[in-house]
Design brief:
Phosphorylase Kinase, domain 1, alpha+beta, Transferase(Phosphotransferase), domain 1, five-stranded antiparallel beta sheet, Kinase-like protein
Amino acid sequence: MSSKSRWANDDDPETEAILAQRKREKEEKRRAKAEKQRQLEEQQQQQQAKLQAQSQDPNFTQTDAPPPSKRRRLSNDHDPARQSPQPSKPNTSDPQTTAEGNNLLTLPTSEWGPCRHVDNFERLNHIEEGSYGFVSRAKDITTGEIVALKKLKLEPTSPEGFPVTGLREIQTLFEARHQNIIELREVVMGTKMDEVYLVMPFVEHDLKTLLDDMREPFLPSETKTLLLQIISGLEFLHAQWIMHRDLKTSNLLMNNRGEIKIADFGMARSYGDPPPPKLTQLVVTLWYRAPELLLGADRYGPEIDLWSIGCIFGELLGKEPLLQGKNEVDQVSKV
């Protein structure tokens, strides 16, 4: 039996085209960087030669030298040439002043800029509608890359403003950078204030659709591979003190190489030790909901995600949901 997964499709022409384009872009950037470095070295050599020639001129004085060109300081690197001739008096009221009192502690910061407009993407087809957004397949007009666009569900007349579910999803995805968690590339805006889109990589499949279309369930070796990836991503989330709170097969994406990506963080939230009180019980889809949630617990932790993983494990083995209750009471009886 071949070790290659049945769903793998590394010869996908669309995938190959994207990889080839990325390779070309990297080569162009590398050449441009090398050319820029070469020009900079030539300018430095010419400037040094000019200064050396001027220093040999007996009529040349230091005041004749041109002022140094200004440049934007992008990091807190130390430049020996930029030393103050006299030590400045320390400002003891400034918390950024070092203990020696001569230099200020400069901290690198990220730059801010406007969001791109959604018109930079060509929407190709609709994928699905979830509880907290509409997902479409789109193409970045600038790079030609195929991405997934998720439009957040916003109510412009809502007095609450931007929904907390959208804020949590954006914050969580920016914090959770892991190979088994879907990546948030950027946030783009539409024409109206209630048009907010999340740009993520396009992933070809989700486990629910695969299970519905497969004639036979996954092999035990494939099930183990999938679970290892899911647990790896979940372990990273819990290490960052984040609960997903909506794990199910439809929220587990898989590309043509068999790589799992945990997605849909609309119900995710951070927690602590001890867990915060008065948490909502209306989380996790019914068939994947832990017993303590079914019984009305308002204080819980990451163990509710582990219960969902157990339900997903049974579904991967049996090709259908393990506990299919009609309502909360029936779900408790199924458990």
